[in-house]
Amino acid sequence: MAAPWWRPTTGSKLIIRGSRPLVGTYPISGAKNAVLPLMVSALLTPHLVTLRNVPANLDVAVLAALLQRLGCDMHWSTAESGLAVTIAADRVQPQRIDPELVTRMRASVLLLGALLARCGEAALPMPGGDAIGLRGIDFHIAGLRAMGASIDLTAGTIRATARDGLRGAAILLPQPSVGATENLLLAAVAAAGTTTIRNAAREPEIADLATCLIAMGARIAGLGTHVLTIEGDAQLGGAVHTVLPDRIEFGTLACAAALTDGELLLARGRVDLLGVAASSFDAAGVHLRKTAEGVVARRAEGGLTGVDLTTAPYPGFATDLQAPTMALLAAAAGTSTITENIFEQRFRHVDELRKMGADIAVRGRTARIRGIERLHGAAVTCTDVRAAAALVLAGLGAKGETTLDGLDHLDRGYDAMTGKLAACGADIERR
């Protein structure tokens, strides 16, 4: 009911018959990593917040159910520009949070900052999500405590109160955590006084959230920098905001075009959102050409070439692009290395790629990939959202048939990927 557009896709397995070039137009959806905090931001105001270019994925449907359970009304509509939602949060009831839904997604931790700011209280179990590392919420908790919140962690439950309201604070994050920056930003816009977040994450999705909050009446300076200054006590109204394009989906499909030796127009794709990944793709043989409609992606004339990559906070190489890029490099000439500096368990897809013939050795946080001419089809299992995309790419480029299990991970992060790929010539179906 919260997301009437969502229907569980039939078929528990994805079948891909590879070695077919992708050709055509692939529309890039709104960013999953942006829309979730944007939806949570609607809790801060009793007025209507409308989001456009919303990706129709499972994570959005789960968060919609969470917000509805908290008392929000959700109105969905579709237009040529895509899915849109108007959220009315005039009757928020923080005690009605759904523990089961919280444990299904990491982004639910953002409810802490928003509910504390709006209602002065929040209680939720430790959030769930992909098993890609510890990803503790220490930075979130420390920042909210600095703003005057009383927080107790007992038996896997987070209980937070701010009976006298939150107050501005000077906060220094030990690392530029995206989630902590978003949580503290949501809390700070309604706190009394000025909040300064230093060593803030600079990801485009954070600037997108801040832009929406400013449209609602928040006063935020320093967008796109490591220092965010928020003048609190804002009386937030409604807003209409268009979610920025998904840079992770864009980078993933650029790799798919190059891996299959095809050519895709990635409609609404933006090279400027890729950061360091843009030059890394160029070095690896992924050619990107801007057009009025988006970006055309194809394999460079010199073919695919091994490169050395290190994941890092934006504008560094995105950790969410690490797995799809590894699938590309597994079929590139020469040897590549990928060092994962963000999440300590984000090489779980390596064993699945090895089943397809990939020559990958892992030592600590570094994977060494010796490229082979072509992967071969195999039965593999998706272990997280981005690993799912990597295995789809590997299957598209492989010889023979690949079968994927664990499709909930793919559904969580991508809007109709199977159908979009089929429209571009992929031999792909769910059974």
Short key terms for the protein model shown above:
431 residues; alpha+beta; UDP-n-acetylglucosamine1-carboxyvinyl-transferase, Chain; 4-stranded mixed sheet; 14 helices; 23 strands; 30% helix; globular
Radius of gyration: 21 Å
**What top-tier CATH class of the largest domain fits best?**
Alpha Beta
- What gap, in angstroms, lies between the N and C termini? 26 Å
Tally of DSSP β-strands: 23
Provide the β-strand percentage band: 25-35%
| Low-confidence region ranges | 129-135
Number of folding domains? 2
Largest sheet strand order: 21-22-1-23
Largest sheet: 4 strands, mixed
Number of helices: 14
Q: Roughly what percent helix?
A: 25-40%
Mind explaining what this structure looks like?
This protein has 431 residues and is of the alpha+beta class. The chain folds into two domains: 14-29 and 245-430, UDP-n-acetylglucosamine1-carboxyvinyl-transferase, Chain (Alpha-beta prism), CATH 3.65.10.10; 32-242, Enolpyruvate transferase domain (UDP-n-acetylglucosamine1-carboxyvinyl-transferase, Chain, Alpha-beta prism). It has 14 helices and 23 strands. The protein has helices at residues 32-41, 58-69, 99-102, 111-119, 138-146, 178-188, 204-215, 247-259, 277-284, 322-329, 350-355, 385-397, 408-413, 417-423, and strands at 14-17, 23-27, 49-54, 73-79, 82-88, 121-125, 150-154, 157-161, 170-172, 194-198, 219-221, 227-231, 239-242, 263-267, 286-290, 294-299, 308-310, 335-339, 359-363, 366-370, 379-381, 401-405, 427-430. The strands form six sheets. The chain has a four-stranded mixed beta sheet. A four-stranded mixed beta sheet has the order 2-14-16-15. Strand 19 and strand 20 form a beta hairpin. Helix 6 runs parallel beside helix 7 (204-215).
